[in-house]
């Protein structure tokens, strides 16, 4: 059940490095069948609406403006709904190539006594300031190389091709919390600590000044005491490593940031020169689960991207000949399990929830059978129309919620050929220890294009058994519906309005809530067909019916992730109910 490996020949084809526990006939044949399975795609679409206005540059709104409320926004909601995402896609005559490259625009919907105000501000990152000063792109981003300096000589410009692009501090992905402070984050080593009221940066923070990592994800997890866990890569003479990071829950000094951060455990990739790309990770009460997926980062291609005239994204590729590996690490001891859990090739960007029960680790993820989509989100693709847009969407696979059940009590005496998942409530299998999944949905989810941007009642049910999760349906290149999944019966509830595109849903529990879904869902809804047709949507999380909306008289681009910053009063009300500080 450990990492012993050998070679298998079937039909005169040599399959090197096959896990030995899969080499007995039926299990290895099963593995080959899974590797050859056709990617699961959603039904073909035709006549998709052009969404080009959703990925156009907008102006910031630095001073609060009033919104027009329709319906009823519950008076107990007190705080700010914060959103992050790209809002500027060009400087001068130079355009960004990839959607992920746009300059970070921070949004705040301040909710109090049933009323809502809105403001936004571009993050004054070093990248934003330098680009603005020169009126061109001078800092490379994920999919866009910096424009060569016209003031340099030909020879100087030639020599600059051998330089590695400096990491950007354009933190456009999410809002996160460390030691009670808000940060905006991307996936490089830079974050910005921000004031959630003014949306202004309070300073750039560099992970590498505190621990030996070259970046970290924009999706940390939190323990009940406020300790934050994250993951980041390091690149050494011995190759790449995946690192689990822990940041303490409280500050010792008023102005400190990541002081006290430590590396809990380092994991060696299967291929140290081509480590896996990952956007998030899973965590239970006692374990961190890292999914090493076959989306590979070719470090040589990335190091030579300027020489080749290609963006960093061109060094990332999908390798469906490789398996997916689940690494399980005891987060308290910092010890990795000797057992590696294998599965068919899959890609995952967001985990739903992970918990331990009866000797099993239950890992719920949003998964796709194809990991090439990351290079499809070019701005020119998102601005397509007509048949070209339909063709782009139909070339992609959907992301669907899946459950993996990993047995924790596996050793050299565990019998081969036996399904180790003895849980009667899940048909997922684990055969020493090749895992298949259970679909956490019915066939009706196909109609809505799968599910992404998953959210749960994090305060009460993160790392615990749960019943409900929420997400965005993707019957377009961006989310076009809001979904609620009830795991008891896998029943789906949907909010959808044709021509409107809601953001990632955020769950806020009601004061004194006793039921898991007693609360509201917040989402920012935008449309390409109405000038200034944006609104903040508030749904009853239980019934999934609209309670109210606040119409915003400005245009907002489609963004990525957000968080709810509860007011001091709301935090006091919910203090005894929450296992972690409200996000």
**Number of strand elements:** 40
Specify the helix fraction band.
10-25%
Cα-based radius of gyration, to the nearest Å: 23 Å
Stretches where pLDDT is under 50 for at least 5 consecutive residues are 1-38, 154-159, 571-583
| Structural class based on helices, strands and sheet pairing | mainly beta
The proportion of residues in beta strands is 35-45%
Number of helices: 9
Coarse shape:
globular
End-to-end gap: 39 Å
Name the features:
disordered C terminus; five-stranded antiparallel sheet; globular; mainly beta; disordered N terminus; six-stranded antiparallel sheet; 583 residues
Question: Would you mind describing this structure in some detail?
Answer:
By secondary structure, the chain is mainly beta. Helix content is 10%, strand content 37%. The protein contains 9 helices and 40 strands. Strands 4, 35, 36, 37, 38 and 39 form a 6-stranded antiparallel beta sheet that branches. A 5-stranded antiparallel beta sheet has the order 3-9-8-5-40. A hairpin with a 2-residue loop joins β25 (347-357) and β26 (360-368). The radius of gyration is 23 Å and the shape is globular. The model is unreliable at 1-38, 154-159 and 571-583 (pLDDT under 50). One of its GO terms (biological process) is carotene catabolic process. Keywords: Dioxygenase, Iron, Lipid metabolism, Metal-binding, Mitochondrion, Oxidoreductase. One of its GO terms (molecular function) is beta,beta-carotene-9',10'-cleaving oxygenase activity.
